[in-house]
Every structure is written in structure tokens, then in C-alpha cells.
Amino acid sequence: MRAIIIDDESNSRELLSALAEKYTPEIEIVGRFDNGADALKEIDQLKPDILFLDIEMPNMNGFDFLEKCPYTDFYLIFTTAYNEYAIKAIKNHAFDYLLKPIKRTEFIHTIERLQKEKHNNQKSKIDELLNHLKVDEDRKKIVLATQEGMHFLEYDEIMYVKGEGAYSHYYCADGSKYFISKTLKDAESKLTDKRFKRVHASYIMNFDFVKKYQRGEGGFFVLKDGTSIPVSRSKKQDLLGLMEKWQ
After folding, report:
1. Which domains does the chain have, with CATH numbers?
2. Which of 2, 97, 107, 117 minimizes the C-alpha distance to 53?
3. Under a CB-based contact definition with an 8 Å cutoff, are residues 40 and 68 in contact?
4. Which residue, among 169, 83, 66, has the nearest Cα to 124 in the 3D structure?
5. pTM of the model
6. Which end of the chain, N or C, is surrounded by fewer C-beta atoms within 10 Å?
């Protein structure tokens, strides 16, 4: 069986390769990648039977890779440091996983189970998982993948999102906040409900939490918890026009 590894941690790639070589000689590692973008360029040619896929990686996480992947005829094994809640979500969709730090006995057991089960329709299972993880428009929910795990947030919980380069901070009404390796543009594409507006180059805000607008060059919004959100001059007139419609 041919296998590829996609993991941004070099020690994980090396460990998986060493385990496969020593304990499962029937598995040939035909590709090792530290990012999903490079793997996408070659996966059609490599045509792996098994994919060892890290979930949390910079720029393109494991779920993003699966959404873009043109070839899905492989048995998917997540390599993850996620908590029990996230792992339960993965297992519910019939995928296997190796919890980091990866142990020899768990690796061998996973491969033995793979060989016994020999799932046939992997594409349908990947599609099912991706559909489960996407924003659920009916329930107004978004899924955030952080280093700690997967978090399922209702739109009603999110007060604002602050972008910092390639990263974003989600701030919630209960005081919790979530740091993810996604740009603010990604947040804007997911928070499609009309209550969310891009008010600044670095901020998306939920208008349900606005207490008042303070005038100024661009001005700023004050939220119910006292947080001040700046408004860019380029967006000021559009936002003021929007608020006039609400009067």
C-alpha cells in the first residue's frame, strides 16, 4: 500500500516514516509534505492508498486540504493533538486517527484495523465529514479549528473578530476567545449573516452587540461589554447609511 504524510512537524513525519518502515513493511511512504499546498500538486500522480493528515497546520489546515483535494480514493488517518471532543466528532464520521505523540502500539493497531475493514467508498465519508464541519446556515453555526480542538460556535455568541496578518481572534459574549491561523478574509467569507459587517481592515463586528456609535474621523462602535471597535474612513459612510435604515 502506498501512503503519504502531510504534517508541518518534521518529527511527526520522521516518526511515521520510521514506524511504517519497521513495523508495517507492506506500507510504502511515497511522499512526505510539510504543507497541504505542495501535496495538492502531487497527490494525483502519487495516488496514495493511505493519507496521514495533520489537522492544524498554518495557511492550510487538514480540512482545507480535503476540500481542495482532487483525489480522495484513500483511507484517511488524522494525526492530531486534539482533545477528546474533537476526536469524537471525527470518529462519528468513521475516520481513524493517531493521537500525538504517536505511540508504536497505536500505529500498529490502526494499520491492522485498516487492513481488516478495507473501506471501499472513502470519498463519500470525506464529503460527509466536510459537510459536517462547514458552516451550518440553518443553525447559524461556525466551526473553528484551534490548537486545542474544534469549537462549534453559534453566530449569536460571536461579538467581533480581530485580524492580525495571517491570524484571527474570535471574541465571544461569554468572555471566551479563540485564536486561529486564518485571515480575516476567511472569517468574512464564513460569517455571511447580515448582522456581521467588516467595519475596519482589522475588524468584523456583530451589530447585535452594538451599544452606540461614537463620531470621529472614522469613529468607533462601543459594544455592550464596553469594547471599542474602530471604523475605517472608507467604510464610515456606508455604515452610517446602514444605521439610518434601522431607525
Report:
1. 2-133 (3.40.50.2300), 141-246 (2.40.50.1020)
2. 97
3. yes
4. 66
5. 0.58
6. C
